[in-house]
Amino acid sequence: MSPIPSAEDTLDPGVEVLQLPDVAARLDLPVTRVQQLLRDGQLLAIRRGGAFAVPAVFLTDDGAVVKGLPGTITVLTDSGFTPDDIMRWLFTADDSLPGTPIDALRTNRGTEVKRRAQALAF
Q1: Largest interatomic CA distance in the chain
Q2: Which tens digits make up the pLDDT trace of 40-53?
């Protein structure tokens, strides 16, 4: 079985993260399925306190992965971004959005985010 990819914990300490069992509970999935989502690039994790953790903003209040996040991760990965690069990009303010890409995804502006991600490939 392949290892779970993760980014360095460069997030602000105030960013709420959920350990994998909590992510599994929110998504109503077994932990092994959450691990597979991470391996498949549908979610990103960091290591905080020695454990894998997913930023809480990657999940919706009704128990789903934020719409557009998996596609954005794929576009950036295909463009050569590392998990560290992707995590940093998602949480870095962009005046043209405005806000951060993850905030834009959460407010249903995924097309704008994907456009910017695709532009980074060139």
Answers
A1: 41
A2: 999 999 999 889 99
Residues 6+ apart with CB under 8 A from 66: 57, 58, 59, 60, 102, 105, 106
Which has more confidence, 110 or 122? 110
What SS3 class is residue 17?
strand
Q: How confident is the model at residue 1 (pLDDT cuts 50, 70, 90)?
A: low
Which pLDDT score is estimated for 96? 85
For 23-61, give one letter per residue: b (16+ CB within 10 A) or e.
bbebbeeeeeebbbbbeebbbbbbebeeebbbbebbbee
Residue 68: helix, strand or coil by DSSP? coil
Between CA 114 and CA 16 the distance in angstroms is 24
Q: By three-state DSSP, how is residue 30 classified?
A: coil
Which residues 6+ apart lie within 8 Å of 103 measured at CB? Answer: 57, 97
